[in-house]
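User: Hi! I'm working on a homework problem where we have to compare a predicted structure to a textbook description. Could you give me the structure for the chain below?
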Amino acid sequence: MNKKWLALIFSAVMLIGSVTGMTSAKAAPSKETVNSIDSVNPGQAITISGTSPNSDVVVKVIDVAKNVVEYIDTISVLDGAFSVKINISPDASIGTHKVIVGLGSEVTAKEFAVTPRIVPGGPGGPGGPGGPGGVPTDVPSKNTDIVYVVNGGTLTLNGATIAFPAGVVKGDVNNFKVIVNKVADTSVLPVDSSSKLINDVFEITKDITGEFSKPVQITLSYDKNSVNLDHSTINIYWFNEETKKWIPLDNPQVDSSSGTVTGSVTHFTKFAILATAKTDIPVALSDTKGHWAEKNILELIQKGAISGYPDGTFKPNNNITRAEFVSIIVKAFNLKEQDGMVFADTSNHWAKSSIATAAAQGIISGYSDTTFGPNDPISREQMAAIIVKAVKMDSSAEGTTYTDSSEISDWAKAAITAVTSKGLMNGYQMVL
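Assistant: Happy to help. Predicted structure tokens:
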């Protein structure tokens, strides 16, 4: 049976169009408050604090002059308050810096100033006054720093911001060095004819071998005047030295207001932001022409939420599994990768990361603490429940009454009511 999952996801994405990276609409007012921040010198620490009704908030610090993210992390809220102390980069720009706090599109901004460090004047010589104080005018950009494994942390080096979770490396490693260099000659890095580089290419390395045990987040900035988002899509990529191809990072998040793109990866290499021209038909599929969901399919493919099969088909009338639906939700809503529940039957599954992320966000749960059933076909009830949680939809509205409403499970009734009242899900001639 065709469950019309495409229309459900697409409509939900449009409903929550203000999710970061899905639209350029202005941010909605936030319920967070941010306390004033005193001016500081480059390299000094600031404390970002305030209140929030949520259990967590995303805190981001932006160097306005350089248009780079200095810091980004998710901070826990305890008893309605949050606080985090961070160090401003030694090569931070003199002038206005901005703190942005919130979740999704609901954010609060607070500005603070970074002021020059005054260099004391020289002592007075015989018969003469001391020399005037100096102001450093050209602070060299820092391109290397140390990461302490037990704590993790966020580094901004040479224009790239890297966020490391605690315990990012397994074993006896206590700390390691990270080096960020800009690639001088990008002509040796091939780019598809439909794409173009819109910022520097960053080569990021470390002084230890092997991949990270947990994903790290890399944030790069781009010149907002260099790309028209109405005609192009942008993403953050890593360069595969063997295939000579640019590969998109996992869980991309585009912040068009600050001109940054963030993605997750477990290794270091070369990274860059690429803009790709939008096309009316982003991919040629042999079995979607004239299908009722053709437009939805093309839109979701363009957003990177779904893809076709290697044989050039999409199989739009196939049922979809629980794992496939969750994976699409995570991609469609650009959910930040998180460590969440790993069930006994998902530990080696291809969708393990997406399922864990959705579980950490409270969007999905298993049949039990050990079983998720990733390969089971997903029901309309389950789809409705996931959409309501992903969109944070009000489930108190009155929905349509169907002739088979008595067959709806008690746990799903509120979710079915919510999605039908918003027009996201319809019945089959008054039968759900």
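For your comparison, note the following. DSSP finds six helices and 20 strands in the chain. The helical segments are 5-15, 294-302, 322-332, 352-360, 380-391, 413-421. Good luck with the assignment!
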